[in-house]
Sequence to fold (136 residues):
Amino acid sequence: MKLAYVDSSVWIARIEGLPNYRKNVNICLQELMNAGWLLCASDAVVLEVLSKPHKDNNERLVRIYDRLFEQTKILKSFPNVFKDALKFSQTENLKAMDSVHLAIAKHHACERFVSTDPHFKNLKSVLSIWIDLKSR
Fold:
């Protein structure tokens, strides 16, 4: 099974973004699934995505994300995640939380990293799929 790690920015754009953003994200994710990729997220993605809706007591949005993540393979953290993330923060020039995402993706053998954040555009350790929200 081919695994594609989907970053927090993608899920947020898909659920909360402008209609054009949602369209671009949906097209990209559908193309991946049609090509046999299994969409994955992690506990770190769930934390980032759900933090604001929980803080805002937005139960409707929490339920939407809960349903979404029930249909997504959730990759678990692992004992050396922060040690590995530290290496990625240096080699890929990423912020701490971004390097945690990459460490989890690499640990679980994800072959693609999907994001809308430009700083993930040119990853060296995994092939990135950058969704340009303004195009398509």
